[in-house]
Every structure is written in structure tokens, then in C-alpha cells.
Design goal:
- Helix 2 packs across helix 3.
- This protein is about 65% helix and about 0% strand.
- It contains 4 helices and no strands.
- About 10% of the residues are buried.
- The protein has one domain.
- The chain has about 55 residues and is an all-alpha fold.
Length: about 55
């Protein structure tokens, strides 16, 4: 993924709740500007935090 997306994949994987699958899905979208990219990352983090019962401790 790093060869394909570069630094953006590292930024995506630093977000709590964003793993390789979610990062790949977010990076696969066309983001016209960086704000939309970060908004998708924020939405993924919020989704992770709202569903703690589905994730291992």
C-alpha cells in the first residue's frame, strides 16, 4: 500500500480504528482535496468509537 499511496497510507494507519482494510477503502476514493480525505478518516474513527462491542479489547 505504501508503494501505491505513499505518505497518505501512513497518515491513515495512524488514526485509531483505521486498519489496512479501512485505509485501503478510504484511499481508493478520489479525494479532490485533503480536507475530504481527513473527513473520511474522522468518520472512520467515529464509527470505530461508537461500536466498541464489536472490537477486541
Amino acid at each position: 500500500m505504501i508503494l501505491s499511496y505513499g505518505k497518505q497510507v501512513v497518515r491513515a494507519l495512524q488514526v485509531k480504528g483505521v486498519g489496512p482494510e479501512t485505509a485501503s477503502r478510504i484511499l481508493g476514493k478520489m479525494h479532490p482535496d485533503e480536507d475530504k480525505f481527513y473527513m473520511d478518516l474522522l468518520k472512520a474513527k467515529v464509527r470505530y468509537l461508537r461500536t466498541p462491542e464489536f472490537w477486541g479489547k
